Amino acid sequence: MKQDALELVRKCNSCQLHANLTHLPAIEISTLQSPWPFAQWGIDILGPFPIATGQRKFIILAVDYFTKWIEAEPLAKITEANARQFLWKNIICRFGIPAKVITDNGTQFTGKVFTTFCKDLHIQLVHTAVAHPQTNGQTEVTNRTILRGLKTRLDKAGGQWAEELPNVLWAYRTTVRTPTGETPYNLCFGTEAVIPVDIGVPSHRVQTFDFNTNDEKLRHNLDLLPEARREGRGEGRSSSSITAGASPDYRWSLAGPPPEPRRTTTGASLDHHLRARC
């Protein structure tokens, strides 16, 4: 009976179609749509804080939902004009026009100035439900992280939070985030930042850096990227099914490309190779 069941499964069309990848029939590889980097941002207001220099007592903060990159700026007043200027200067001018912006129901985000600005740029503006901040959960989590960082660094010197904010942002951007397994800096720029620990105990990248060859090495890495993509095409599919297609992403540091795949051989193939050379 067990053998009969096994034969039935082997001949069942539905079982073959929904089996593991290695048992799937060969299909033509289709073109993938290009992703939209920095497509969705969440924006929120923190404060009021103890009054800092320039009468600043608020923080306007934005976080990209994928890379977890954050932009923040201390402000004295939170107005529609300030919110619009922050969106333009800190997000659009640096990362391009997003597809969606998520905010709370504060008047600085629901007023005509801000909403018209988003409408003119075809940005979908989404407001969270009243008394339900979880709708913008990514921003709320980031808010807690920033507040914790400020409290840890300042202790009782609360009025210096504006001067300490860049340090907290830098630490956040260069720390691995659990959802992605990468630092926001790496996801934004394709390489890790040189941080103080790389200088105190010089890393390999710092020790081997050469002004004269750095540009050449960067161009070399760029030249290797198409080759690495070609080698990765069609993984998990039979070679006969590959006609054209998408390529997986390969990321590496400035130290060089990823190692070549390990190659194996058998006694028969080695014997054939040696005989051919004799």
From TrEMBL:
Chain ranges of the Integrase catalytic domain: 33-192
Chain segments carrying region Disordered: 227-278
GO biological process: DNA integration
Biased composition, class Basic and acidic residues, residue ranges: 227-236
Any GO molecular function: nucleic acid binding
Pfam families registered for this protein in UniProt: rve
Name this protein carries in UniProt: Integrase catalytic domain-containing protein
Organism: Dendrobium nobile (Orchid)
